Amino acid sequence: MRATRVLIPACALMMAAAAPLGVAAQVQSNRVPPTSAVAMKSSFAPVVKRAAPAVVNISARRLVRQQTDPFWQLFGLGAPRARIANSLGSGVIVRPDGIIVTNNHVVENGQEITVALADRREFPARILLADPRTDLAVLKIDVPAGERLPVLPIDDSGDTEVGDLVLAIGDPFGVGQTVTNGIVSAINRTPDDDGASAYIQTDAAINPGNSGGALVDMDGDLIGVNSFILSRSGTSSGVGFAVPAAVVRRVVETAAGGGRAVVRPWLGARTQTVTAEIARTLGMARPQGALVADVWPGGAAFRAGLRQGDVVTEVDGRPVTDAASLNYAFATRRPGDTVRLTVRRDAGREQTLEVRAEAPPASPARDERTIEGQNPLSGATVVNLSPAVADELGLDPFAGRGVLISRLDRGFAVGAGFRPGDIIRGVNGRRVESVRELTAALETPSRGWQIAFERGGQLITARF
């Protein structure tokens, strides 16, 4: 039986009557955090006392639509049925004025979001920013004037090491706040090549309901937000992952500054991990770094002098292990920063390049629309594809011009088998490169439809 990646699901609210934040109330001593390994073995209570009051429960109510047969929808019949789904997760207070960070999947599409504090008070919350790429969301609650809530300091120093003791704090299964302990099993885990996040792996028990909870070090500082597990059973098997504090801080700062989306700097180069075979071909002593496969004309990397065939081995003096770690190192910088790349070129000659961190190109304009009418794409929300849109959705920024399906909520497109992320390339033999061209092609009367689209690098033609 294979282990699968499982987003730590939010628990049913029928269990929410359990004491939401009991641990913090139970710790009453005035002890300080342990300063030695011997002290750590005796009790984690001082660390819990500092951290637990800033961990909250989050409940969300969302409207779930159940699709009916798309055939009847073509005739205006069979409207989608709707039901209310309730869920429960965790969150961390990171600003005393009521700013809270959690997982995006805890509050995604939530119509009503409620936050329960350590003292059992409940507040309605609103979403300031949602970032599906990192599975983070930032919420805001309005607290009484002059009140300052307990917070967890964000430690993004980068000093976390494999073997460090950590605590995971959250609300598993809705039973009330729970603390589990473990160690940092690995750092910079990058299951996705896009490098939006490089996770901290821990063996501290993380279960359903822990989504958005805190991973803290022995100073009681936030080093990560618990996000997902690898498990055969759907419950903890000692392989959990947390979004690291460096990513958390970027998302929180963006939201607190009024930003509606996280702008990630883009290197402007497509890279691949240096494998053992590539290393032998290039005469490298060992496989390390990211091989540059393509450079975006006129982009930051192009202007800095990065070339196809270069191997990036360091970013600001820190080793690059693979393509994902390079993308992550660049994505956690701020737009405008200068980043130093150490590059292996030609016969092993090393060179240092300075690249200015900047947002990916946003041309052509988005022009986001929902397709209407009696056609196979009816109900799909589409957008013009640009490097900025592709980067935002975790797709290949080098995919070129086209029309991207960004969302599917209803209509014939759902039953027709289309998916978010599909790139529409043509309609009835007519090439389309923009939303305007697509809508014009779909408005042309036709007895049958032939839709050419790209999925996972494969070109597919579907007939309807």
UniProtKB/TrEMBL annotation:
Coiled-coil zones: none
Residue span(s) of domain PDZ: 282-347, 382-435
Active-site feature positions: 105 (charge relay system), 135 (charge relay system), 211 (charge relay system)
GO biological-process terms attached to the record: proteolysis
Keyword entries, A-Z: Hydrolase, Protease, Repeat, Serine protease, Signal
One Pfam family matching this protein: PDZ_2
Signal peptide from the UniProt entry: 1-25
Keyword Protease: yes
Keyword Hydrolase appears in the UniProt entry: yes
Superkingdom of the source species: Bacteria
GO molecular function: serine-type endopeptidase activity
Sites where the protein binds substrate: 105, 135, 209-211
Family recorded in the similarity comment: Belongs to the peptidase S1C family.
Protein name as annotated: Serine protease
